[in-house]
Write a structure and sequence with these properties.
The chain has 241 residues and is α/β, with parallel strands linked by helices. The protein is built from eleven helices and nine strands.
Length: 241
């Protein structure tokens, strides 16, 4: 509560790049907590916020800040790339997410297809019916949904064809493992192929080396995101990038 009231939560943006052209086609907003002179990573506080229910307040704050930033860019005559925000499964169960998102877009006069929503794969493993209903309603309202961290949990191939989605984000570990063992390389390649044949674009996260980038390109992965291109940046630095 104090952190929110004191403006200690900020967001960084990490660029996403089209494999084919090298163009920046989007960015992912990632929350940071500036506390006592330290910049704390979400891996350390998100699980606590999810357990205590405070995640909704922080997520709403991050989405609002991102929407405000996009509006500010538009007002300055800059056309921003689409930005993805992270949605916790708690957000789907605690309040009317669809209504909230529609209101946010209206408030800042944005288009829903400039504001992509990432929902982690593991969110779908429990109460999947309610999640699918919410996702369908969001898509009907014009939002684009990306499945985050695919390959990290109980991913089934069935998920790719049955879940409503606009893009599949491959889990970082899943991708890194593909470069350690040949059989994992084939798994990654097969998942990208299946997504491709179902016309679902794939995004690879955690791309750190040229070797990974070229191999992913070879496999037909559409979009890459990772330290190889850029770390997550403060919004002003992202604008320059
Ligand atoms: P995520 O959504 O899968 O985000 C990708 C994470 O991978 C980010 O960590 C990013 O900094 C990191 N990353 C990107 N490229 C590389 C790379 O080349 N190498 C390595 N080693 N790491 C890379 P970050 O920012 O620490 O976020 C961790 C997780 O916290 C996110 O994973 C997401 O699940 C969650 N998160 C972040 N921001 C928010 C938010 O605003 N709301 C919610 N609910 N969750 C958030
Ligand atoms: Mg994400
Ligand atoms: Mg991810």
């Amino acid at each position: 509560k104090h952190g929110l009231a004191n403006g200690e939560f900020i967001f960084y943006i990490q660029p996403q790049v089209f494999e084919k052209t090298g163009q920046i086609m989007g960015g992912e907003a990632l929350v940071r907590w500036q506390h006592d002179g330290h910049l704390i990573s979400p891996g350390r506080f998100i699980p606590v916020l999810e357990k205590t229910g405070y995640i909704c307040a922080v997520d709403c704050f991050v989405w609002q800040s991102v929407a405000q930033w996009l509006r500010d860019l538009l007002d300055r005559g800059i056309t921003p790339v689409p930005v993805s925000v992270n949605v916790s499964r708690v957000d789907i169960f605690d309040y009317d997410l669809v209504d909230h998102m529609k209101g946010l877009i209206r408030e800042f006069d944005l288009s829903p297809d400039e504001f992509l929503l990432e929902i982690t794969e593991s969110a779908y493993t429990q109460d999947s019916a309610q999640i699918i209903n919410t996702v369908n309603a969001l898509r009907e309202a014009g939002f684009h949904i990306e499945i985050d961290d695919f390959g990290s949990g109980y991913s089934s191939l069935n998920m790719i064809s049955t879940l409503p989605m606009d893009a599949l984000k491959l889990d970082m570990e899943f991708m890194h493992n593909a470069f350690k063992e040949r059989k994992n390389t084939k798994m990654l390649d097969a998942v990208i192929d299946i997504a491709y044949s179902l016309e679902v674009p794939t995004i690879a996260e955690g791309v750190e080396t040229a070797e990974q980038m070229f191999a992913l390109k070879e496999m037909g992965c559409d979009i890459v995101q990772g330290f190889y291109f850029s770390r997550p940046l403060p919004p002003e630095a992202f604008e320059r990038f």
